[in-house]
Write a structure and sequence with these properties.
By secondary structure, the protein is mainly α. It has eight helices and no strands. Zinc ion (ZN) binds at residues 6-8, 10-11, 18-20.
């Protein structure tokens, strides 16, 4: 799913000015219901692509390299859920989440802070743990650590109080 950030479409754009009032921006975003947002695993802001970036020669990971990493992470999950009816982190139940996404005290504290400050729902909380588990898998990490949770929290940016 995709949406504009506001009525005029330029809120947060570094180059063009948004002419909406804070009230209009809030009304625009709050039209997406909380329960709907809760069911979306990852929220990402996608800025306009600048011409110089489209034409730049800068190299990044190739599709083949990314595919290889994703395949490895899927294999890890396949092994994790052996004998169960599903094979991906996204399908974990609350009970399975507890088993596979235990956090150390640092990560726990960060998540607690994010939950309180960003007013994240219980469903959002479980999404963060599942996405954090996947980030840890991509990182070949057995444990879900603070850096994985911190990245996963960033993918809940539409949960933030700012919009409510
Ligand atoms: Zn605007």
């Amino acid at each position: 799913m995709a949406t504009q950030p506001c009525l005029c479409g330029f809120y947060g754009d570094p180059k063009r000015e948004c002419h909406c009032t804070p009230r209009q921006i809030q009304n625009y975003i709050s039209k997406i219901s909380g329960p709907l947002l809760d069911r979306i695993d990852i929220h990402v802001e996608v800025p306009n692509v600048q011409y110089k970036d489209l034409t730049s020669d800068a190299t990044c990971e190739s599709s083949e390299e990314i595919r290889e990493e994703v395949t490895k992470a899927r294999d890890t999950q396949l092994k994790r859920f052996q004998g169960l009816k599903y094979s991906t982190n996204s399908r974990m139940s609350a009970k399975t989440i507890k088993k596979h996404c235990s956090l150390d005290s640092q990560a726990e504290e960060l998540l607690h802070q994010a939950m309180t400050e960003l007013n994240i729902s219980a469903r959002g909380y479980n999404k963060i743990l599942k996405v954090g588990r996947t980030i840890a898998d991509l990182d070949h990490s057995e444990n879900v650590c603070i850096e994985h949770i911190s990245e996963a929290v960033q993918y809940r940016n539409l949960d933030r109080d700012l919009w409510k």
